[in-house]
Amino acid sequence: MCVSQWDKLAEEFEGSEKVVIADVDCTASGKALCEKHGVQGYPTIKTLSGPDDLDGEKYEGGRDLDSLRKHAE
User: Fold this and answer.
1) Which of 42, 51, 41 is nearest to 20 (CA)?
2) pLDDT in tens, 4-53
3) How far, in Å, CA of 39 to CA of 55, rounded?
């Protein structure tokens, strides 16, 4: 089984009190959440600063582990 860069990032931040790495299937039960946050294309990475951040910021950086880690930190 191939582990994606996203999965590796999630493993690194597992247990963090400040950073949550999650993925949502926008074609299934996550459709309403994706619509709420304006996700229109896939894959989309959004950064939300807290529970009241309804729009978030679309991440346009690299998809390699180092770039993703730097953004999450």
Assistant:
1) 51
2) 899 999 999 999 988 999 889 998 899 998 888 888 888 889 888 888 88
3) 10
